Protein backbone atom coordinates (compact mmCIF):
# COMPACT_ATOMS: atom_id res chain seq x y z
CA UNK A 1 0.00 0.00 0.00
CA UNK A 2 1.11 3.59 -0.44
CA UNK A 3 3.33 5.07 2.22
CA UNK A 4 3.83 8.79 2.67
CA UNK A 5 6.85 10.42 4.31
CA UNK A 6 7.16 14.17 4.36
CA UNK A 7 9.56 16.63 5.97
CA UNK A 8 8.78 20.32 6.38
CA UNK A 9 10.47 23.26 8.04
CA UNK A 10 7.81 25.15 9.97
CA UNK A 11 8.39 28.43 11.83
CA UNK A 12 6.88 27.36 15.15
CA UNK A 13 8.48 25.68 18.14
CA UNK A 14 8.52 21.89 18.54
CA UNK A 15 6.42 22.34 21.70
CA UNK A 16 3.74 24.31 19.85
CA UNK A 17 3.52 21.78 17.04
CA UNK A 18 3.61 18.83 19.44
CA UNK A 19 0.68 20.31 21.42
CA UNK A 20 -1.28 20.92 18.23
CA UNK A 21 -0.87 17.33 16.96
CA UNK A 22 -1.49 15.84 20.43
CA UNK A 23 -4.83 17.71 20.75
CA UNK A 24 -6.75 14.88 19.07
CA UNK A 25 -10.19 15.98 20.30
CA UNK A 26 -9.93 19.13 18.16
CA UNK A 27 -9.25 17.26 14.90
CA UNK A 28 -12.86 17.50 13.63
CA UNK A 29 -12.55 21.31 13.75
CA UNK A 30 -9.84 21.43 11.08
CA UNK A 31 -8.87 18.06 9.61
CA UNK A 32 -10.44 17.04 6.30
CA UNK A 33 -12.53 13.88 6.62
CA UNK A 34 -12.34 13.73 10.44
CA UNK A 35 -15.95 13.94 11.59
CA UNK A 36 -15.59 12.84 15.22
CA UNK A 37 -12.79 12.37 17.79
CA UNK A 38 -13.19 10.96 21.29
CA UNK A 39 -10.48 10.37 23.90
CA UNK A 40 -11.15 7.06 25.65
CA UNK A 41 -8.27 7.32 28.14
CA UNK A 42 -5.32 9.63 28.66
CA UNK A 43 -2.10 9.97 30.67
CA UNK A 44 0.86 12.31 30.14
CA UNK A 45 2.60 9.69 27.99
CA UNK A 46 -0.29 8.03 26.16
CA UNK A 47 -3.85 8.36 25.00
CA UNK A 48 -6.38 6.08 23.38
CA UNK A 49 -8.51 7.83 20.80
CA UNK A 50 -11.49 6.84 18.70
CA UNK A 51 -11.72 8.70 15.39
CA UNK A 52 -14.46 8.65 12.79
CA UNK A 53 -13.40 9.47 9.25
CA UNK A 54 -15.76 10.11 6.39
CA UNK A 55 -15.21 10.69 2.71
CA UNK A 56 -17.81 10.34 0.02
CA UNK A 57 -20.26 7.59 0.99
CA UNK A 58 -17.77 6.03 3.43
CA UNK A 59 -17.70 6.53 7.19
CA UNK A 60 -15.46 4.42 9.42
CA UNK A 61 -14.51 4.53 13.10
CA UNK A 62 -11.20 3.26 14.43
CA UNK A 63 -9.28 3.22 17.70
CA UNK A 64 -5.60 4.10 18.07
CA UNK A 65 -3.09 4.19 20.89
CA UNK A 66 -1.05 7.40 20.74
CA UNK A 67 2.33 7.54 22.48
CA UNK A 68 3.38 11.07 23.47
CA UNK A 69 7.15 11.56 23.74
CA UNK A 70 7.07 15.27 24.63
CA UNK A 71 8.19 17.38 22.79
CA UNK A 72 9.94 15.35 20.10
CA UNK A 73 7.71 12.51 18.86
CA UNK A 74 4.14 11.27 18.58
CA UNK A 75 3.55 7.66 17.54
CA UNK A 76 0.16 6.30 16.53
CA UNK A 77 -0.53 2.56 16.69
CA UNK A 78 -3.75 1.11 15.37
CA UNK A 79 -5.89 -0.96 17.76
CA UNK A 80 -9.24 -1.73 16.10
CA UNK A 81 -11.43 -0.75 13.20
CA UNK A 82 -11.38 -0.98 9.40
CA UNK A 83 -7.60 -1.24 8.89
CA UNK A 84 -5.28 -4.21 8.49
CA UNK A 85 -2.65 -1.91 9.97
CA UNK A 86 -1.92 1.78 10.55
CA UNK A 87 1.43 3.32 11.45
CA UNK A 88 1.84 7.05 11.90
CA UNK A 89 4.77 8.99 13.37
CA UNK A 90 5.32 12.73 13.84
CA UNK A 91 8.84 13.86 14.79
CA UNK A 92 9.61 17.45 15.86
CA UNK A 93 13.25 18.57 15.71
CA UNK A 94 14.36 22.06 16.83
CA UNK A 95 15.89 24.19 14.09
CA UNK A 96 17.19 27.78 14.32
CA UNK A 97 14.40 28.76 11.90
CA UNK A 98 11.61 26.91 13.78
CA UNK A 99 10.94 23.18 13.74
CA UNK A 100 11.78 20.43 11.30
CA UNK A 101 8.71 18.19 11.17
CA UNK A 102 8.94 14.65 9.84
CA UNK A 103 5.59 12.99 9.12
CA UNK A 104 5.17 9.32 8.20
CA UNK A 105 1.98 7.37 7.57
CA UNK A 106 1.40 3.85 6.24
CA UNK A 107 -1.89 2.00 6.36
CA UNK A 108 -4.06 -0.53 4.61
CA UNK A 109 -7.82 -0.96 4.85
CA UNK A 110 -9.27 -4.45 5.33
CA UNK A 111 -11.91 -3.71 2.69
CA UNK A 112 -10.71 -3.71 -0.92
CA UNK A 113 -13.51 -1.25 -1.75
CA UNK A 114 -12.26 1.25 0.85
CA UNK A 115 -8.64 0.65 -0.13
CA UNK A 116 -9.37 1.27 -3.81
CA UNK A 117 -11.41 4.40 -3.01
CA UNK A 118 -8.68 5.78 -0.75
CA UNK A 119 -5.86 4.77 -3.09
CA UNK A 120 -7.11 7.21 -5.71
CA UNK A 121 -6.80 10.20 -3.35
CA UNK A 122 -4.20 8.96 -0.84
CA UNK A 123 -1.24 11.22 -1.65
CA UNK A 124 -3.33 14.34 -2.14
CA UNK A 125 -5.32 13.52 1.00
CA UNK A 126 -2.18 13.23 3.13
CA UNK A 127 -0.83 16.51 1.75
CA UNK A 128 -4.15 18.18 2.58
CA UNK A 129 -3.99 16.75 6.10
CA UNK A 130 -0.45 18.06 6.72
CA UNK A 131 -1.46 21.44 5.28
CA UNK A 132 -4.49 21.49 7.61
CA UNK A 133 -2.16 21.12 10.62
CA UNK A 134 0.00 23.99 9.33
CA UNK A 135 -3.05 26.20 8.83
CA UNK A 136 -4.23 25.26 12.33
CA UNK A 137 -0.84 26.35 13.76
CA UNK A 138 -1.18 29.69 11.96
CA UNK A 139 -4.75 30.11 13.28
CA UNK A 140 -3.73 29.34 16.88
CA UNK A 141 -0.21 30.81 17.12
CA UNK A 142 -0.36 33.53 14.46
CA UNK A 143 1.85 34.01 11.44
CA UNK A 144 5.53 33.78 12.28
CA UNK A 145 7.55 36.52 10.59
CA UNK A 146 11.07 35.09 10.89
CA UNK A 147 10.29 32.77 7.99
CA UNK A 148 7.28 31.73 5.97
CA UNK A 149 5.06 29.49 8.16
CA UNK A 150 5.87 26.46 6.02
CA UNK A 151 8.44 25.53 3.45
CA UNK A 152 8.40 22.05 1.89
CA UNK A 153 11.88 20.58 2.03
CA UNK A 154 11.42 16.92 1.16
CA UNK A 155 8.49 14.71 0.22
CA UNK A 156 8.97 10.98 -0.31
CA UNK A 157 6.18 8.88 -1.80
CA UNK A 158 6.64 5.13 -1.76
CA UNK A 159 4.34 2.79 -3.67
CA UNK A 160 4.26 -0.86 -2.65
From TrEMBL:
Instruction: Show which residues constitute the signal peptide.
Output: none
Superkingdom: Bacteria
| Designated name of the protein | Coenzyme Q-binding protein COQ10 START domain-containing protein
Q: Which residues form the Coenzyme Q-binding protein COQ10 START domain?
A: 10-133
Query: One Pfam family, short name please?
Result: Polyketide_cyc
Recorded family membership:
Belongs to the ribosome association toxin RatA family.
Transmembrane segment boundaries: none
InterPro entries registered for this protein in UniProt? COQ10-like, COQ10_START, START-like_dom_sf
**Lineage of origin:** Bacteria, Pseudomonadati, Pseudomonadota, Alphaproteobacteria, Acetobacterales
Under the heading PANTHER family, the entry gives: COENZYME Q-BINDING PROTEIN COQ10, MITOCHONDRIAL, SPERM PROTEIN HOMOLOG
Tell me which species this is from. Answer: Gluconobacter thailandicus NBRC 3257
